[in-house]
Amino acid sequence: MKRGRRLFPWVCIFCCFVFIILYITTVKSSPIERVLTKRGYILDREGNPLVISRDHYRAYLLIKGKAMIGDDLSPVVRKYLAQGVNLPEKGVFLLSDSLTQEEAELLKREDNVFVEWSFERKVIYPGLEALVGRVSNQDGVAGLEKAFDDSLKQGKSLQVSLSLDTIKRISNLGRKTKDLEEILVAKRNGELLAFYSLFTTPFFEKTFLLPPYLLPSYEFSTLEWEFGKQEVKKDGEYLRITPLHLVQAELRRINGENTRLTVLPRFGAEEATIKEATIKSSGSSSQEAKEEILVLPSQEKSIHLLSGRERVILVVRNGVEPRNLLPLFKDSGVLR
Questions:
Q1: Which position has the higher pLDDT, 315 or 10?
Q2: 292 and 179 in one domain?
């Protein structure tokens, strides 16, 4: 027992020695360590980035005693301390939470300074957060970030069916035309191209209560896409459906078959098969654009379904007075 007590201080000294050696060889003698794989980009159908990873640097001062404060700190470190700041006698003090790589490299050379490096996700275009989702502690916790987390963690980029150009066009329409609350644009093959919303609730979670008599020509079915299943629910005499259910039902009506919505681009054989079925069901590849309006007096809203040769558009309007939106979307180049 006494022998074990005598050995204990030596074991502690040995562990401290090993830690110091590792600190000097790995932290102080090399560039900032990057143990994480850079998360993959999310790109639109044309390869434009929708979300990227940016390097994020922060620096901490390791304080071991009062002798480290004041004039004992180098000018490189002192410039990150506010005048008159009170430092603790011992502990860790955050110097900066937002450093450039050059600043991080300079601080890295200072004694008793630890520089931490991580990724910061940046959504390129405002309004895409609802679908793109977010990351917490390098894990995707919502939206595309969560649905494709494993692949993105490996540094693989994800290409989706969205079109940044179309997103910008409908966003401009939404800002200029005050009564447009939500807009969804999909290709006839089921690819989601763009969305716009005035609200923070994701468009694919929002629901409408619609009486079945307003929808005699529509057949609704469970929505199955990359974010899981969403059932059509009955609420008394009404149907509770999402905007995506309406778009899917419109695609089924004009295509003559159950076209599945997706956020992934369809290239090759699958797209050709759907296009052929679409032409056969419409009888011509040059189908005239049409508009169907569902008025919801109880909600003081109207839903417009615009269908063209290549695209289907759903618009939620704040108001029930008659209005034709077809020219607006054709002239803007959104409806084709």
A1: 315
A2: yes
